[in-house]
Amino acid sequence: MSVCRALALACLALVGFVSSGAGAVISRDWKTPGDGLLTYDDVNQREWLDISASMLDQFGSRVDEAVATAKLELMPGGVFEGFTLAGREDIDQLVASSGFDGSSYSNSLTTVDQMRHLILLVGGPDKLVEPAGTAALLGVIDETVPTQLPSQPTRVAVLFAVYDRAPARPNGQGSYGYNNQSNDLYRSSSVSTVGLMLYRSAIPEPSASLLFSFCFGLSCFRRNSCLATVSSN
């Protein structure tokens, strides 16, 4: 096999690999190869840190105190340097990128599977809150709700959930929404079941078209070089 042909086949294989691996929400590594602690959103070009890496039990025994301490780690030199505490719009964009229809509760088997996949990506299988009939994940966002005591606002979290099958929803049900500390599920949760929703800007995945263009140009250059060599001989 000629060098030119081998190069062309290798480039086509590389393009095919990138194309098959492309997805709106995929797993990436954070600190060590294979840790899978980042979820890459290729629509908004952001990397989301797994909640398993931002659990509040690392920073205190109460949600409010732990959040305040954890937010200090966003500063230069902190564990979460470079990350941002997400707001509602950021969460909505992540959910949309995953393919889940967040406009209403969904009983579609497809969207239930998409929500379950998002929970596993962003939270990790060992950090799921599982009340009866529910697979859920809580992540604190950058929002508070005023209370009668202005100095003690309640912290808001996003709740990702998949509900088990029932006669009214034979495929199960997927949903997400926002809860504060007055919510029963949030109030009953401890710092060991709640983390921070953190993201950072990311380097885009190389597109298949870009790689193809590069490979095509490289193969043409190689071919011309080969022709020039033959002509000179």
Question: What report would you give on this structure?
Answer:
- There is one protein chain.
- This protein has 233 residues and is of the alpha+beta class.
- The chain is 36% helix and 22% strand.
- It is built from six helices and nine strands, in the order αβββαβααβββαββα.
- It has helices at residues 3-21, 63-72, 88-98, 109-123, 184-188, 208-232; strands at 25-28, 38-41, 46-49, 84-85, 134-145, 154-163, 173-180, 194-196, 198-201.
- The strands form two sheets. A five-stranded antiparallel sheet has the order 1-2-3-9-4. A four-stranded mixed sheet has the order 7-6-5-8.
- β2 (38-41) and β3 (46-49) form a beta hairpin.
- α1 runs antiparallel to α6.
- The longest helix has 25 residues, at 208-232.
- The protein is globular and about 45 Å long.
- The relative contact order is 0.19.
- Shape, principal axes of CA atoms: globular
Order of helices and strands: HEEEHEHHEEEHEEH
Side by side, the strands of the main sheet go: 1-2-3-9-4
- Uncertain residue segments: 6-22, 208-212, 226-230
Q: Whole-number radius of gyration?
A: 23 Å
Q: Report the mean per-residue pLDDT as an integer.
A: 75
What percentage of amino acids are in beta strands? 15-25%
N-to-C terminal Cα separation, in Å?
21 Å
User: What is the share of helical residues?
Assistant: 25-40%
Helix-strand category: alpha+beta
Q: Enumerate how many helices there are, as a single number.
A: 6
Main sheet specs: 5 strands, antiparallel
Q: What's the total number of strands?
A: 9
